[in-house]
Amino acid sequence: MNTTIKAYSYIRFSDPKQSRGTSQDRQTELRDKLIAKHGWQLDCTLTINDLGRSAFKGERKGLNAFLQAVEDGTITPGSVLIVEKLDRLSRDDIEAATDLFKRIVKGGILIATCEPERIYQKADLKNPFVWIELIMYFAVANEESQKKSDKLKDVWDRRRKANWKGGHSPAWITWDGDKPILDKAKAGTVRMIFDLTISGLGNRLLVKRLHKMGVATSYQWTTACLWRH
């Protein structure tokens, strides 16, 4: 009887640009070394990768498919889910990350990490030392992602403000020092443009309609409004 343990590979990276880098190759190489070391059999019948999906935002279409296959019995208890690191599973808050971990191991699935090399199983749910390790790991991963998210948001806010103040702000925004001021009349026109566009009116007919309503505008201006939204 063949008692070879089936292994399933989960590869994730958050930025689509990483598809042009080494992230996927590195994760694949580490996975293959771990499989060879333990003599597991890689099962490729189910694709569970989440490429270009954020573990911080809880985006896990591929992993959800794996969980569903575990719960409906397609993937049997005793199988192994291989990940490079635990934060490939989740960088969500501690509660969500540990709930995900529990959901996997309670299904009888082993979680094998390549860095560091560890194998987690259902029995670990009763081990307080493992739980302390998991909580610390997930907490650090979440904090790092939150800092990156806050930093990126700040960078884009600064760029947007600099562009707007540099003369690239929309026509319906004026400035009072560092404070953006909405031109209510122009903003009303912009809303009207979107409403009419959504109703199916093309730009040239839209301009004619606005002219009949006494709104001075042009084809180029209405196009700019739509593109700048």
- Please compute the radius of gyration using only Cα atoms: 26 Å
Largest sheet: 5 strands, mixed
Average pLDDT rating? 80
The helix/strand class is alpha/beta
The percent of residues in helical segments reads: 40-55%
Alpha-carbon distance between the two ends: 64 Å
Uncertain ranges: none
Give the CATH class of the largest domain. Alpha Beta
How much beta, percentage-wise? 5-15%
Tally of distinct domains: 2
Please, could you describe this protein's structure?
This protein is an alpha/beta fold. It folds into two domains: 6-144, Rossmann fold (3-Layer(aba) Sandwich); 173-228, no CATH class. It is built from seven helices and nine strands. The protein has helices spanning 23-38, 61-71, 94-106, 128-168, 184-198, 203-212, 219-228; strands at residues 6-9, 12-13, 41-42, 50-51, 80-83, 110-113, 118-120, 173-176, 179-182. The strands form three sheets. The chain has a five-stranded mixed sheet with strand order 3-1-5-6-7, covered by helices on one side. Strands 2-4 form a two-stranded parallel sheet. Strands 8-9 form a two-stranded antiparallel sheet. The protein is elongated. The N and C termini lie far apart (64 Å). The mean pLDDT is 80.
